[in-house]
Amino acid sequence: MAITNQEEQPWEELLGSNNWDGLLDPLNLSLRRLILRSGDFCQATYDAFINDQNSKYCGASRYGKPSFFHKVMLENATDYQIHSFLYATARVSVPEAFLLHSQSRESWDRESNWIGYIAVTSDEVSRAIGRREIYVAWRGTTRNYEWINVLWSELQSAKRLIKIQGEETGGNSSSSESDEDENVPKVMRGWLTIYISDDPKSSFVKSSARVQVSAKIQELKNKYKDEKMSIVMTGHSLGASLSVLSAFDLVENGVADDIPVTAIVFGCPQVGNKAFKQKIESHRNLKILLVKNKIDLIPHYPGRLMGYVDIGTELLIDTRKSPSLKDSKNPSDWHNLQAILHVVAGWNSADKVFELMVKRSLALVNKSSGFLKDECLVPMSWWVEKNKGMVLDQSGEWVLAPPADEDLPVPE
């Protein structure tokens, strides 16, 4: 591992106050660590999500808030605390690639899926760094690429997210007669639907993910009103798109006020049109950093022919630079989050040799893939519950183990 003595950058610059000018090539060490931390927060949403439809808790988090970071084995787990969980509701038809439901008649909830969480730095860490860091991590899909063909890709007016003087925004999206106007900010219908859909009939969570995150951020603003704050939205794949939407929403509608809001996202599909990009760029305290793998196909979807444009500042890496990764022809490997984070850890620009600049376990790459070369001797897709959650009960039957009391889903 290389040793570097790069000067520490002001935290505002690490969050994009100067659009990361001079920090991306070569990649600044402190920014590298921030990107990896954000990626680990994303990975935690995958590691904790119950996607086994045999379980009556399918669609929930495997771990409760009190010990969440310890159970996903996050580095420096005691530095962060879960403030709240976030849920998506399914009053509208949302593809199963994103929202999963149990086959059990005793399902914990048939209308909702756990979609992420909000975390804050501990009191001790906040005192040390001089501010309260707030992280919002959005979960992506658990079935790579399946959602491409089933999630609505057409552009739709983002008017529900746009602040109108004297009016409040909110509710579900609907078509607009001005949707054909190129000057109207538009976003992908699928992203917007998942973000703003609510379900008043749900017994678990009735409000949309949008309402939940806005309310929880307001709670944190009130709680820490005497402290400096920063907000980082993070996500991978579809979760990256939700990060961009929610970051814009918080700033556009005054929830964040003058708090710096930064979206650090991985493998992000295109989110909106040129007018939406211009709307984002009009906010000085809103910044977006896109971490892209050069050969990943997802960041090019849905495409310019459908009216989409790239939004934000780009950190372009290439998984082919790592000597530890296979010459894979599988597009899911090119989009794999842990492979992207592995390369971020050793990225030294396109024309320089790959060399790890921070300590990061190579085995993480195969957490949910088989992307590592065979000589690395790491089993593929090794992050699984022991016996897939099956235990031998007192009657001698093998059954799916119920969660510990602290891990049971609880309405926010």
Topology:
Blueprint: H1 11-14, H2 29-48, H3 68-71, E1 80-89, E2 112-121, H4 123-129, E3 132-138, E4 155-157, E5 186-188, H5 189-196, H6 209-223, E6 229-236, H7 238-252, E7 261-266, H8 274-281, E8 286-293, E9 313-317, H9 331-334, H10 337-346, E10 390-392, E11 398-400
Parallel strand pairs: 3-6, 6-7, 7-8, 8-9
Antiparallel strand pairs: 1-2, 2-3, 4-5, 10-11
Describe this protein's structure:
This protein is an alpha/beta fold. Helices cover 23% and strands 16% of the residues. The chain is built from 10 helices and 11 strands. The protein has a 7-stranded mixed β-sheet, with helices on both faces. Helix 8 (274-281) links the parallel strand 7 (261-266) and strand 8.
Brief overview:
It contains 10 helices and 11 strands. By secondary structure, the chain is an alpha/beta fold.
Radius of gyration: 21 Å
Give me the count of strands. 11
Q: How is the main sheet built?
A: 7 strands, mixed
H-E order:
HHHEEHEEEHHEHEHEEHHEE
Low-confidence stretches: 167-177
- Helix coverage percent: 10-25%
- What distance lies between the first and last C-alpha atoms, to the nearest angstrom? 43 Å
Please state how the strands of the largest beta sheet are arranged side by side. Answer: 1-2-3-6-7-8-9
How many separate helices? 10
